[in-house]
Write a structure and sequence with these properties.
The chain is α+β, with helices and mostly antiparallel strands. It contains 3 helices and 3 strands; from the N terminus they run E-H-H-E-E-H. It has helices at residues 9-16, 20-32, 65-74, and strands at 7-8, 36-43, 49-56. It has a 3-stranded antiparallel sheet with strand order 1-3-2. The model has no long low-confidence stretch (mean pLDDT 94).
């Protein structure tokens, strides 16, 4: 969804049929991981207020043997 268009939390929650708080949690985790970024924009209607719009950041994911070994070790 975020790959196609920058999206507000409310829209993510609505499209996925999940509570706002759960959508916020997932977006926060993705933002902290550096996969998406959120930018505040001013909405004028119905009254002036800030909203945070999220979009996918450019990133590169590299999976190599060392990463797989570290993941396997972390699982015990």
């Amino acid at each position: 969804m975020l790959v196609k268009n920058p999206t507000f939390i409310q829209d993510v929650a609505h499209k996925l049929s999940i509570p706002y708080a759960l959508a916020h949690l997932h977006l926060k985790v993705l933002e902290e991981a550096g996969l998406i970024e959120g930018v505040y924009v001013v909405e004028e209607r119905p009254r002036p207020h800030l909203r945070k719009v999220y979009r996918v950041r450019d990133f590169r994911l590299v999976i190599d043997r060392q990463l797989l070994e570290r993941l396997a070790e972390s699982l015990g």
